[in-house]
Amino acid sequence: MANMAQVMRSRFEAFRRLRFHSPWFYLGEGLIWMLLICMAIIEVAPILWMFSTSLRDPADSFKLPPDFLPTSWRWDNYLAVIRSEKINFPLFFWNSLKIALIVTGSQLLTCSLAAFAFARLRFPGRDFLFFLFLASMMVPAQVTTVPVFIIIRSLRLMDTHWALILPAMTSAFGVFLLRQFFLTLPGELIDAAKIDGASFFRIYWQIMLPLVGPGLSALGVFTFLGSWNNFYGPLLFLRSWDKLTFPLALVTLQGYMGMGNRSHVLAGIMMSIVPVLIFFLLAQRFVIRGIALTGLKG
Question: Which of 20, 91, 160, 234 is the most exposed place for a label (fewest CB within 10 A)?
């Protein structure tokens, strides 16, 4: 009976709040929804326009005024890009995918190890090292280009994919992001594991790491997107044709097929964003949760 009375009281309060909302409240709600819908249209419209243009006849690509929907749906534009004899798109796609997956996996491992040490281990100079680590985030990437280039050349890794993988195997942002998640976990878990005789690595791997899943998902998505869209690094280190990545292939595609054929170029760009779009949609819930939980403690 007490529970029933509590439920009835909560429903009455909800009804009373709903009934006595002023018209200005509903007007504000409507304006917010209209603003959100307009922003969503602005965000999605360029992608829809690019997809529509990629299916047009090449002669209609420069039509003025342009039509939003193509008069003839040319799905063979995608086949023309894939089957191009001058550009091996499947190979470039595989190169980008391989580099992005290795970089993402290595960052999840190295950043989680460093974050766990900075958050849960006690050693001299821990806070100073962490703030020194964070200070590296303030250094622009352009400043480190020449030193990184000299190191890669000294290691004889020029024109190899390792020149892109090794510098990106860890990041200060990833360490900071995951450290915030480790700080939110109760210290009693570590104390109980120590009593049971678990080592630090076992505590990290079997107890703490599964509990920071949202942070790992967010970092994984950010790292994968950054590596997939990386254009400057491959342009600097890669020379051989069979080692190029997808962003460089798009530029090459524009050179070979872009003269008067915007549909083929946009078809290639659409193929480049589909994997990251699918990857982001699948992990969207974890990314939002990961960002929302970042910085709750510490």
Answer: 20
